[in-house]
Structure formats: C-alpha cells, structure tokens
Amino acid sequence: MDRGVTDTFFYDNKIVRDFGIATVFWGIAGMLIGVIIAFQLANPDVNMGNQYTTFGRVRPLHTNAVIFAFVGNAIFMGVYYSLQRLCKTRMYSDLLSKINFWGWQLIIVSAVITLPLGITTSKEYAELEWPIDIAITLIWVVFGWNMFGTIAKRREKHMYVAIWFYIATFLTVAVLHIVNSYEMPVNFLKSYSGYAGVQDALVQWWYGHNAVAFFLTTPFLGLMYYFLPKAANRPVYSYRLSIIHFWSLIFIYIWAGPHHLLYTSLPDWAQSLGVVFSIMLIAPSWGGMINGLLTLRGAWDKVREEPVLKFMVVAITAYGMATFEGPMLSLKNVNAIAHFTDWIVAHVHVGALGWNGFLTFAMLYWLFPRLYKTELFSKKLANTHFWLGTLGILFYAIPMYWAGFTQGLMWKQFTAEGTLQYSNFLETVLQIVPMYYLRGIGGILYLGGVFLMVYNLYKTAKSGSLVANEKTEAPVIVPTVSNNAGHWHRWIEKRPTQMAIWATVAILIGGLVEFIPAFVIKSNVPTIASVKPYTSLELHGRDLYIKEGCVNCHTQMVRPFRSETERYGEYSKAGEFVYDHNFLWGSKRTGPDLHRVGGKYPHSWHYHHMMDPTSMSPGSIMPAYPWLFEQEVDLSTTQDKLKVLKKLGVPYEEEYIANANEELMKQANGIAADLKKEGIEVKAESEIVAMIAYLQRLGTDIKVKETQE
C-alpha cells in the first residue's frame, strides 16, 4: 500500500482509565494495610486479638497488594496507554484487554480472601496457593497475547526502547513464575514446593530478587522512557545508552538472586556468583538513571513548576539510590551486618515508595487530564502531595536505617570477657520500638498524600469527560525517522520475534548456570545420616507455623558467625534441610532465630509463650495465639500430605503413612501428658500441641553444642 495513505483509528482510553482507577484503589488498600502492620510491630495490641489480622497473616497481604495490585495495575495502565501510541494502533483485542483487567482484579481479590485465612506457601512474593498461581499464568498469557498482537499490527515499524522493556518484562516474569511455582497439590488449598531446602531457597530468591527486577524495575524503566520525555517535552538523552542499559540490565540482573542467601547453607560458589553480578549491576542501573535525569537537560526550570516532573525526578533519584545500595549490601562484609535487620526494610522501601510509588503518581497526574481532555484540577494539591510523600519516605526510611544499624551492631556486640553483650534477643528489639512508631508516622504521611491525589484526580475527571475512544490518524506504514537509522541495533528493533528470542536467551543463561550444578551435583548438599523426615504431628505443626506467618519474623538459619553460634548454637548445615518443602530460612529477624530452639525450653514454656508472649518474655511485641489452643488439627489431611511428600522424595514408609494418625496421636498424647505434669490441661488434638512438637524438633537432628541462656 502507498506510504502516503493515512488510516483513521481509535485508541482505547477506557481500559487505561480502568487500570488507573484500580491502581489508586489498591494503592490505598495496600498502603493502609502497611500502616497497620507498621504499628503492629510497635504495639502487639494492634494485631486486634484476631487470627485473621495478625502481623504474620497480614504482612504478605500488604506485600502482594502493593506489588501486584498497586504496581501491577500501574504497569498495565502505563503499558496500555503507551503501547498503543508507540505502535500507532489500537490494542490488538478489546476482549483480551477486558479479560486482562477483570482477571487481574479477581486474582487480587482471591489474595485478599486467602492470605488472612492463612492459606499461603510462605514463599516471599509468591505466597499464593496453586489454583491462584494457575490463574496468574493464564491472565499473564492474555496480557502477552494482547501485547504481542498489538506489536504485530503496529504502523510504526521501529520499536521504541520502552517496548523492549515491556517484552523483557513479559517473558521474564513468565519464566520466573512458572519455575518458582513448581509445586504439588495436597488439596485445593494446600501444596508443597517441588524443591526442598537449599534448592528451594536458590529458586525462591532467584525468583524473589528478579520479581523486584522484572516486575518492579524493568516495566517501570520502560514507562520512564515513555512518560519522562513526554512530560519534559525532551527526547531521551542517549539512544546508545538505552541499548547498553537494556541488554546489560536484563542479562546481569538474573544472576544476582543468591546475594539474598549470603552466609547461609547455599554453596559458596553460588553465593560468590550472586555477589559478583550484584556489583556489576551498578553500571546498567546507573546508566538508566543517568539517561533519565539527563533527559531533563534544558528543562529543569519546568521541574520547579510541574508536579509531574517533581515526582519523576525523585522517582529516578530513588531508583539510583536503591540500585547503588543493593550492590553495596551484596558485599559480604556489609551483608554480615545488614542482613536480617530493618536496614533491608529501609532499602526496599526507598525503591518501592520512591521509585514505584512516585513514578506511578507522576503517570496518574499526567494521564488523567489527557484521558478526560481537561486540565489538572489543582497543581497546588499535587505539590502538597509531593512534599507529604517525600516527608513520608524520610520518616519511614531514616528510622528503619537507624533500627537496622542498631540491630546489626547489638547482635554482634561482645563484652571484654568474651560473652555476648546482649544475650537476650529481646533487648535488641526493645531498643528499636520507637523507630517502628516513627515508621508508622511516615506511612501515614505518605498515605495522606495519596488521599489528596484521589481528590485531585476525582475533581479533574469531573471537570472533563472521558474520551473512551480517542480518534487519531497515522500513515498506514510509518517510516522510521531517526539520526540513528543506520545503527547496527536497528535490525532487531524492527523484529519483535528476534527481540523476544534474544531477550529470553539473555535472561535464561544466569538461571541455568546457577540451577544445573545446584540440582545435578550432589556434593552441593552433603547428606547427614541422622536427618530424618518430620513425624506426622511435626509436619502438621510445621504447616501451622507456615499458616500463621511465623517465617515473617523468625529465621531458621544460624550463620557461621561467632555472635550467632554463641547466641543460638551450631551453625546450620545444608543437609539438615533436605526434607523441607518449603524451605523456611526467612529474611528478617524481628524475633530470634529458631533453628536450634528444639529442646532448649520445656513444652510448658512454648505453651505459655504462645498463649501470652509477655509471660515468658516481658516486653515482647509478639502477638498471642489463643486460637491454637481452641482449634484442632485436621487429621483428614495427614495421609494426603505424607503421600505428596513421598512423591517429592521424602522417604516415608508406606506402613508409616497408613498408620500416620495413630503415630500422630501417640506423640501428641505424650506431649499432653508432659504438660499435665506441670498442671496444664490440653487436648492432644489441639493445634498448640502440633506447634510445640514442631518447635521442639527444630535443629535436633544433629548434635549441637550447649547454648548460652
């Protein structure tokens, strides 16, 4: 067809508006839950004495709400708006767009229902159970189908840099989700990971780190490359830098997951790979930040006046700060102090609140006036939102950094006589409670700014009318006009299939190099003859530990530091976890490590501690768990659980499986009898007995030295 012929078509703005509203709604919900759990850590009464609202149950709801609901909807909003204009065509299918929208909202609602009920895998950022995992896969395929269909029918032959990041995001998230979600169902609401112990930890943090990389970073970099030049009315600073940024980022990022597992039982070679590639990440990450900030050259006067640009500048700066700090935290000497502390929480939230939050706010303020063909209702309110949000970040991050430094140093402090300065872990907790209150105030300030934005966007929408189908014209085939028309990279920018193939190759290499030796070479996980599978009662207790979210506050990984072996006991060995589906090493110590807690206290201590933590640990911020004393273990699931674990390689005998509940009651009656000797009457079938059985088993499979009381 002749290049001079133009075609009239309509952009779909309604789907962009829908995702925008969902972004705001779930943003408020997720941040409100975040404020609640911030104060729960400062004051256990805020747990409300209800099993559905404890920190352990609600914390994963917060992370899922802000990552997949707030940020997820923001990604779809930005991609659906920008992709149509970059490809100069309507989205491939209105039906697929609607399925994408409503399917994603239903997935979020399912998370809102299941997580407070304790239906969780416990794997960070992947807590949702297997039926929801399948739904996520299907809706993600719908999104990809719609995106690639739109790219295939584009009128602009050249694919702009933002589209490269969208393609890499879709492909990598698909690979991450499918590999990490390899699990075997027990029933509709329960499954066990297909991996165990060290391998499960490696896969999870390959996923967890790259969920941050390819869900919270790469799509937002694509959105930055589109919305920042639009808002500043300036071209991207450097085309060549964007090429280097893209390919080096997606190749290097995928290797860095093991830096979450430094000094653990993960093999040293895998830890070293994680460190090396994490340090290398500084270059592409800062290349992207520099490309963004220098795009504003000649437009800095606008930053003083335009709230959209204010949000973008702070967002990109926060991205630069977080991506410098991340590699620094990957250095072993820094990680030894920071890991398991609130320093990591501060680091994560600088990225989440600054980079993801502020760039999302900038997009919303930029989009709504254009969707409704009107002016923003109030720049003054938007500027107020900016300053409230900035203060909120500072009030959040600075106390958490302080708390993290305090924890890291107090845990390692020894007296002149060579004993632990703070042998009681609770001493380190009580020091940082004021920081938790300040963090909560920061969350209130940040959320207050969001409420101002809601009012501002509502008034903006009321002053105009939605252009649901925006009429536009474009040449049927748009020639590529650029100073870089002859650049070597152009051949792939016009070929989405080749782009997708090479991006997939780039992101698969790192994972394969780490996984194949870890799974194939048996010496990576030396076996320990004395390590046996959990008994049926202990397995139920372990599942209760997962259900209550104990892993959110307690680790099960004693690192080979003098301070930790003095405090907890013998350091953890890889062979101790071979039957752990899922692994429970944890990532944060709000309470002490539990890997060597077995046999350290009598049954009655655990009984009273779960009923009223302050009775055993005065000043404790742990909530009580009275429902464990009233509810009974579901014995109908015992055999099914053991059969699934046997299929996964746990050596349960058929005879043991057949008599599992009899063995369970025998062990439970023994614990109940021991408690009765101390004047405690408890039903052997109660959940607290199973929990005690599990806690008393932890770390007892190998001989450990005496721990200091």
From TrEMBL:
Q: What is its EC number?
A: 7.1.1.9
**What Pfam families does the database record attribute to this sequence?**
COX1, FixO
Span of domain Cytochrome oxidase subunit I profile: 19-466
Q: What class of enzyme is it?
A: translocase
Which InterPro entries does the UniProt entry name for this protein? Cyt_c-like_dom, Cyt_c-like_dom_sf, Cyt_c_oxase-like_su1_dom, Cyt_c_oxase-like_su1_sf, Cyt_C_Oxase_1, Cyt_c_Oxase_su1_BS, Cyt_c_oxidase_cbb3_su1, Cyt_c_oxidase_monohaem-su/FixO
As for subcellular location, the record says:
Cell membrane
Name its co-factor(s): heme b; Cu(2+)
**Spans traversing the lipid bilayer:** 21-41, 61-83, 95-118, 130-148, 160-179, 205-227, 239-256, 276-296, 308-324, 344-366, 386-404, 436-458, 499-520
Q: Which family does it belong to?
A: Belongs to the heme-copper respiratory oxidase family.
Topology class, membrane: Multi-pass membrane protein
Indicate what this protein is called per its UniProt record.
Answer: cytochrome-c oxidase
Per the UniProt record, the source organism is: Pontibacter aydingkolensis
- Pathway(s) it belongs to: Energy metabolism; oxidative phosphorylation
Q: NCBIfam families attached here?
A: ccoN, ccoO, PRK14485.1, PRK14487.1
Which reaction equations make up its catalytic activity?
A: 4 Fe(II)-[cytochrome c] + O2 + 8 H(+)(in) = 4 Fe(III)-[cytochrome c] + 2 H2O + 4 H(+)(out)
Provide the alphabetized UniProt keywords.
Cell membrane, Copper, Electron transport, Heme, Iron, Membrane, Metal-binding, Respiratory chain, Translocase, Transmembrane, Transmembrane helix, Transport
- The Cytochrome c domain covers which part of the protein? 536-699
